[in-house]
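Work Package 4 report. The design task specified in the project plan requires that, given a folded chain encoded as structure tokens, an amino acid be chosen for each position. We show below one input record used in the internal validation round.
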């Protein structure tokens, strides 16, 4: 008798996890956070409800992890195959030209914000985070703040290179170009584009006074 290969449980688990991520993000985009349920995610992913509870304790945990995975995939795609190493995917480039580096990463952010696969669940989670303090706190702690710290690291490097004033607080300074983009995107106060984010970087770096 031919030997039968035992099912690969790791492979099966990863396939289920990926299906749950996709289902959670699709549902929250279609029906909103409040109407998204563990039962709905399980049905859409084609798994049992107990499978989800084995890995996560709540729908918030599922959605945040799914969104973190989506963001990691976007970062990896933006980095390109020439970037080696796990951590390198999540670094802001340091070419020695701060203006060019900030413009490049904000252009990549524009692409991400305008991608429906990212935009739809992102808006749903951001909107819910405003009224749901626990979700909002987790969203900031697990997703937003780690990304902002990449800007802090790049600005500190620029301080060491003499490209930025040594006495500025990088965590405050980054808000000069990150916050206007986020607000315009969230509140639809105007279009977001490469020209817009390029202007934000220039205004932040050089101010409004004539040069």
């Amino acid at each position: 008798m031919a030997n039968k290969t035992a099912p690969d449980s790791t492979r099966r688990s990863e396939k289920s996890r990926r299906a749950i991520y996709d289902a959670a993000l699709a549902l929250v985009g279609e029906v909103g956070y409040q109407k998204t349920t563990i039962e709905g995610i399980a049905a859409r992913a084609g798994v049992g409800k107990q499978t989800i509870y084995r890995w996560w304790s709540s729908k918030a945990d599922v959605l945040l992890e799914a969104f973190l995975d989506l963001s990691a995939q976007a970062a990896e795609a933006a980095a390109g195959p020439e970037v080696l190493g796990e951590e390198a995917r999540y670094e802001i480039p340091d070419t020695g030209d701060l203006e060019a580096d900030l413009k490049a990463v904000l252009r990549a952010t524009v692409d991400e914000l305008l991608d429906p696969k990212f935009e739809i669940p992102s808006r749903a989670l951001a909107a819910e985070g405003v009224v749901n303090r626990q979700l909002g706190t987790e969203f900031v702690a697990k997703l937003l703040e780690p990304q902002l710290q990449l800007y802090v690291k790049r600005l500190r490097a620029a301080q060491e290179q003499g490209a930025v004033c040594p006495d500025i607080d990088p965590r405050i300074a980054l808000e000069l170009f990150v916050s206007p983009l986020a607000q315009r995107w969230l509140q639809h106060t105007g279009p977001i584009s490469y020209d817009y984010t390029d202007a934000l970087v220039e205004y932040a770096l050089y101010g409004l006074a004539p040069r």
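DSSP finds ten helices and no strands in the chain. Validation will be extended to a larger panel in the next phase.
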